[in-house]
Amino acid sequence: MINWDDIIADLLTKDGNPITTDPDIWHLDTPGYDEIYNAWKAANFNLATIKWINYYPGKHFSKDIVEEVAQQLGLKGIHRSWISRIDPGYMAPWHWDVDENEQEYLAHGPIIRYTVIIKEFAHGHIFIIGDKYFYNLYKGKSICWDNYREWHSGINAGMEPNWLLHIVGYN
């Protein structure tokens, strides 16, 4: 059994990888990134509110954790995974996850994506995948995406960080 509270407590002692609207981290020459970034600017988002922090297995936490979750979900393999944190007052607005390795992943067959709730959702935590809204979910709940490239967003209008585990893999 994974103790997510201990993992989160440990991650809080580490610098994750902040994702912001800083164009230097967006590789705007990569197809997809410029589309998302320009859509945010065209929609007049308050760019200062766009921020989330990613933590990666092998760098910020043990790969064994993701392998255990993938096994529980019935995945044969993992392409990539990460834990995301959105702090109060911030958001990850409408986007899809651009991945330069997509063609390599497809060689293993259909790509499957899961999001796992690793801390109880609190008031103000909203996660949207396509036209499905998720809120007030319990810790341990897994969400299988209909399409791994679906447009999605996360919003934290609450008073505590929102933590999610994301796994992209195959069967």
Protein described:
It is a single chain. This protein starts with a helix and ends with a strand. The radius of gyration is 16 Å and the shape is globular. The protein has one domain (4-170): Jelly Rolls (Sandwich), CATH 2.60.120. It is 20% helix and 31% strand. The chain is an alpha+beta fold. It contains four helices and ten strands.
Write the layout of secondary structure elements.
Blueprint: H1 4-11, E1 17-19, H2 33-42, E2 52-55, H3 63-73, E3 77-86, E4 91-95, H4 102-106, E5 112-117, E6 125-129, E7 132-134, E8 142-144, E9 152-156, E10 162-170
Antiparallel strand pairs: 1-2, 2-3, 3-10, 4-9, 5-8, 5-10, 6-7, 6-9
Question: What average pLDDT do the residues reach?
Answer: 95
Low-confidence stretches: none
CATH architect. name: Sandwich
Element string (H = helix, E = strand): HEHEHEEHEEEEEE
Radius of gyration: 16 Å
Helix amount = 10-25%
Classify the fold: give the CATH topology.
Jelly Rolls
Distance between the termini: 23 Å
CATH superfamily: Jelly Rolls
Query: How many E-type strands?
Result: 10
| Domain module tally | 1
CATH class: Mainly Beta
The gross shape turns out to be globular
The number of helices is: 4
The multimeric state of the shown protein is single chain
